[in-house]
Each structure stands twice: as structure tokens, then as C-alpha cells.
User: Fold these one by one.
Assistant:
Number 1:
Amino acid sequence: MAEQPLLTPYYSDKLTLRNRVVMAPMTRSRADNPGTVPNDLMAEYYAQRASAGLIISEGVFVSPEAVGYINVPGLYTPEQVEGWKKVTAAVHAKGGKFFAQIWHVGRMSHPDLLGGNLPLSASTLDPHSQVYTPTGFKDTVAPAAMTVAQIKQTVADFVQAAQNALAAGFDGVEIHSSNGYLFHQFFNGTANHRTDEYGGSMENRARFFFEVLDAMQAAGVDLGKVGSRLNPSLDGMFGMTLDAETIPTFDYIVKRLNDYNLAYLHLSEPFTDVSQNEFAEPHIAQRYRPLYQGTLIINAGFDQEKGNKVIADGNADLVAYGVLYIANPDLVERFAQNAPLAEGDKDTFYVPGAKGYTDYPALAK
């Protein structure tokens, strides 16, 4: 029987992975302690899943202003860095590779999470969504449009978070630049109505994102340890809608990323049916494989069969799995044995404690 493409090693000049299965970043809200410091339970959770070729951590906030969810860890205090050291050590003890996804939610927050301050975004446009606060779901509000000084500070926050991640033992970082969060809000013309150097043309709307990469490089961060996640066809989520410039903007971003020699580019297939949307691209892997020269991770809706096929067809190098990893800590081993997959308990996806987090059993050996 031929070896499954998913289970073959992957080698690039920046990555050496024992298989092509990636654990996708997933918010799990277990940092339910003062200072949202990573804890022993999180170390156990990630170590259980270390047979993945690469683990990308849950989104990790780069500053207090970046926060948009409760009980999500950060990477901006010494205590958080020390907490992450225990988690990365647990993963590395099992032979795993581990990147931190660094994150700013932008307008997808609420004053209750920000000390009474307004969320920050490209423009003062309410996403008309909801955010989970300490007292339950609340409607979003119109954010404050970021000043140039706030943009520069946020660039510095991402640089510091990358440095903190490496100091904490991560093998690299992924910039969360997708799914309707801060960078995506700048990219998207329906969320960005700015008239300064950060709005208008696609080059201007992408400026903030590339300033982060440039600043990381200037600060001595090896861009070979940096990845980026993009979601070109996101539509109807968190107030984001597609327009005629959406896909051309992502074409521009992806092509320009070839100049940065990153660890990888992590792309998501559409989360919703976009087949009737004239502005959408329904086949992200096929579109961007020819445009991007580096390592390409594809995500969203893949099972074992589809994951093997997208690699065999040459449209991606690695496949990221999210929900399947919640209830299947040994997903790689299950793929190897073509074993049945367990189903996760949705009621425990975002609640504190071990239940629905570290209590899913591995296959009996």
C-alpha cells in the first residue's frame, strides 16, 4: 500500500517536519488565571498532540489592546513568557515543532475587555457582530480608527511578541492576518475607509502588515521563523464582505510575500459557500499555489482523504486540521491506521478545565 502523502516528511530550507499534518490554531480559553498566563493544563494539551508535524498555537494576544476573548493567553508580560516556556518544553520533549500564532483582534472586541476603551481598527465601522465578555455575549461597537502613532505602536507590539515567543522556546511565530481580525480589517475595502497612507489602494491597505514584517527583520527576527495566515475568500463573517478588489488585494499580498522568504504561508479555503459570489475565489489552494514560491499550508474542511489529495495534486505542502484535533490528540496515528475518529463535545470547546480538553483518549496500543 502506497504511503499517504500526509504522513511523509517535509523538508524546506526553514522547516524539517516528520509529517505534513499541521495542528491548526484554535482558541480554547483555558488560561483562566490572573494575567492569562499559560498553565500546566495547556502544556499537557499541546504535548498530547505533539505527533503533528507542526503545531500552531491558539491565537495569542500581543498586547492588552489586542484582547478580544476571555481566558486567552498573551505574550506581552514576563509571566506569560515564563508560562509558555513550560508549554514549549512539554511539546519539544515529545519531539514536536511549535509555532505561536500572534494576534490582535482589532474591532472584534468590546470595551468590557479593554478597560472601558474602544476597540481599535482601520476605520470607525461597527462589524455588527457579537463578542463574548466576562458577563456574556454583547454586541460590538464602532471602534476607534487607529492613529498613525497607534499603528506604529502595534507594529512594535508584534515585534516584541515575536521576540517573546522565541525567548519562550517556540520554533517560530505565525502572524494572524486573517479571519476578519486587525490586519484583515485593513486589507478589506468594506472595513477600511481610510484616506491616509493606510487606506485607498491595495498597496496602502497592505502597508501595515508589511511594516510588521519589515520591523521584525530590522529587529533581528529571522523571517525564516515567521509564517502568515490569510483568508482571501472570507465573506459574511465578523462584518467582512468581499468586493471587486478583495481577491486582487490578496494576489498582491501573496506575490509580494515571495520577497520575504517566510517559513510558510497558511491559507484558508472559504468557510462558507461562495460559489454564487462574483468576487470570491472558491479554490484557494489552486489559485495561490502558482503565485507563492514557498511552503504552503492549506486549511478548512479537510479530512484525511482530501488532505492526501491536495498534497498529491501539488496544490499544498502541508494540511492544517482544527476541529479534528480537539477530540483526536493522536490524529497522525489514527490517519496511519485508518482508524475511526472521535467527535468533540462542542459544549466544552471554550470552557475552563480538563473536561473536553485533555481527557480525550488516544487509541489503545
Number 2:
Amino acid sequence: MDSLINAHPNLKMYDFKLRQLTVEKKLKQDKLKPSLNVNYNPLFNAENINMGYQNNYKWGVTVGFPILLRKERGDLQLTKIKIATTTYDNLNKRNELMNKVKSTINEYNTYKNQIAIYSKNVINYERLWQSEKRLFDSGESSLFMINSREMSYINAQLKLNEIINKNKKAALDAEYSFGLLNTIY
């Protein structure tokens, strides 16, 4: 069940967000480092090359480091907090999905047990109806009793069909809670 939950689309969304925040954290950490720029600018153009001015150039080195780094450290701390929040949201969503999966599986199993019980009830109602017909043929019952038994049998069949439909819906809910519905259909 854990492997199916780990492949759930909602949890993948959190995984992608955590990857994005990790990259953002690395960027914020790089902003804490001093910057070093080396420049080389030649001071000649195509006309000066022909005239022999080939040693004219300009070198430059720029080193920069913010003195207090308040903004950079604040941004880094904010990104760390976002990562922690997203991790907690991921765990919360995982727990919600596990609870939902367990409840839908329990619902499916409950309807499955009810189907077994109501199938027996339908068979028993049919037996009562058939025996009532035999009693009517022998003259010991009335048409009202036959109709009453037949109505009970039909109502039991309708109730069984209703439970079967609820069971199928519970099966689809379980597949949806696992995040498999989009891959199946």
C-alpha cells in the first residue's frame, strides 16, 4: 500500500515542490558567497590592428561581498522554512491519503460481505416464493400470499443490486484514493 501511496499524483506534486525549493535553497546559499569578476577588454578595433597597436587592453578584477548579509541570510532562512512546511504538508497529505485508502477499502469489504449475506437472502426469498406456489397448487395458500412472497423476493433482488452498485462505487473510490484511476481509464 505504501508503494501505491508514494506514486499518488498529489504526493508527486509535493516532491516536485521540494525539488524546486532545494534548488532555490542552493541559489540562496550561493548568494552568501563573495562574488569575483575578472574582466578583459581589448582596446583595439580592426583598424588599430593593422597599425600595430596590439598591446592595448584593459584588465579588471572586481570582488564583492556584502558586509552584513541580512537579506541573503533572511532569504535562505525563509527558503528553509518553506522546505520544512512543504515536508510537513507532504506528511500530512500522506496520512490523509492513507486514512482515505483504509476507509475506502473497509467500505469495499463491508459491501462485499453484505453482498454475500443478501445473496443468501435472495435465494431464501425465492425458496419461500416457490414453496408458496406449491402450497397454492395444493390448495393451502392464497394468491395474496404468493404475491406477498414474490414482492419480498423482488425487493430483495433490488436491494442486492443496490448493494452491488455501492460495492462497485467503493471499488472505484479505492482506486481513486490510490491515485490509480487516471492510469486505468
Number 3:
Amino acid sequence: MKQHLYIKNISDVSRSGEVKEYMSGMLGSSFITPRNNPLDQTPAVYINANITLFVLSGKADFSINYTTHKVCERDIVMLSPAHLVTLTNLTDNFQAEALFVSREFMESMDPVDIISVRTRYGVKLYSQPVINFTSKEVEFMMQRLTLFKQVLNNSQHHYYNETVLSTLILFFLDLSNIIEQKHLQVGEALPRREYITNMFMELLSANYRTQHSVAFYASKLNITSHYLTLVVKQVTGQTVCDFIYEMLYSRARALLQENKMSIQEIASYLHFSDQSSFGKFFHRHSGLSPKEYRLKQLEK
């Protein structure tokens, strides 16, 4: 039987109280222990956010895209929305700090200051998302994270949005600096299959709203649709179509929850041929029509 993929937003994982939510679910933070683990998801899920997790003590198993990573003190785990994750088998003394930044907020950040530096190592970190830092590096980044959380909690600041954005950019720039200086071998080549998969992920993130066909992504990579599907399946365990459809479903769900656009407008925005085809697509993934899903969210 085909395994269904699940995508959760920050708000979905914060409802249990395990993630503190900011800016209407655009950002979140969590202090993770065996009793408070928002990443203990069964089955594993995609979380529609970039997650940076600092392991402060103890050990655990981090399943990332069907590969189990044994994480321990001073490990930094960097996850994108394209990582299928679950965190299990935490030792009694396990503690970690996690920062969640939604895809929408990442897209709103200044591309000159942040996106360009992230893409330098993003391809590499997709297949190797766990990095071991020194104690001083962890201490430094925890200071940056503490500063960011202080800014998040000061919602009465007259320039709240601007200070949140600038402090987050500082956090990622310092994190990027450490990774690029000490933990990334510049010029190191990825295996071809991983390279193709990561290039597909980059293309998908930028084009999923308007491009729904495998052929489009294959043509951009100068390979056949069959080969792209084969490679992505081998690397991730899922097909190209799985990723395209789940990205669309996640975005559709978020737009329906926001209640700012009509269903017809959402269908057009996501480049479905008409409202009927969008409705069939959404019902296939959720078991509800877009209208039923929106009404259910408004009742919460």
C-alpha cells in the first residue's frame, strides 16, 4: 500500500504546547526534552519550516529522509521543508533548543542577505543535515538564539517586525559563517544522484505553485522525466509527484486557513485549471472539500 505523506505547519505542532508560536505561526521555538518533543511524529512528517536544532545534552535518534542519525551533545541539525523527520529514543538527559521558521517567513527575508548564503551549503546539508560544533560555537549560537527569542517576546516594540527580521538574519549569517569556515569543504562534489535531487528540491521550492509537471523539472535539469523520478525515488523514497502534490497541498491548506482569498482565487493562484480540479485535488489529500476544510478551521 502506498504510504501517505504528511506535512505539518508550525501551528500544527504547537497546538500541544510543545512549540511556542510567534507571529501567527510564522515562527516558533521549543525546548525539547523526553517529555516535550514536538518532533516525535508517527509516521514521520514533513514540517513546512526550516528547523535549526541544537543538541545540548543526551542522545537521540533522528530519522531524516529514512536515514537514522545518532545525535548527541554539540550536534546541530538543520532541516528544510523537504526533510521527512521524526525524533525518537531520547535519553533521560536529552535537551535541545529548536528554532522553527516557516517557509513563508523565509521567503519574506532579504534574498541578498540570507538566501544567497544559505544556498551555498543547502545542497550539501540536505543529505548531511547533522553537523558537530565545538563547545564555543554552540555557546555563541545559543547567545544569538537567546537574543532572537528576547526580540520575539518584545511584541510592544514600535519596530517589532523589523527587529525580528534583522535579528533572525544575524542569527543565520553567524550560523552560515561557522558552517562555511569550519564545516563545509568548499568544492566538494556531491554524488550525482544527491546533486540531482537537491537541484530538483531547489527548483521545486521556487516553482511548485506554477509548475505541476515532472517534465518541467526534468527539462530544467537536462534529464528525462523517467530518470528524475528514478533518482528522487532512490534518494528519498518518494516520487517527484509526491513532492509536487504535497507542496501544493501544504500551500493550499495554509491559504484556506488564512481566509483571505476565495477558493476560486486559491485555485487560480496555485495554477489549477479550474476550481473543480482544485477541489478534487484537495479532497483526495484531506478527505474534505476546500469549503469544508475552511469551515472546520474557522470553528476551532
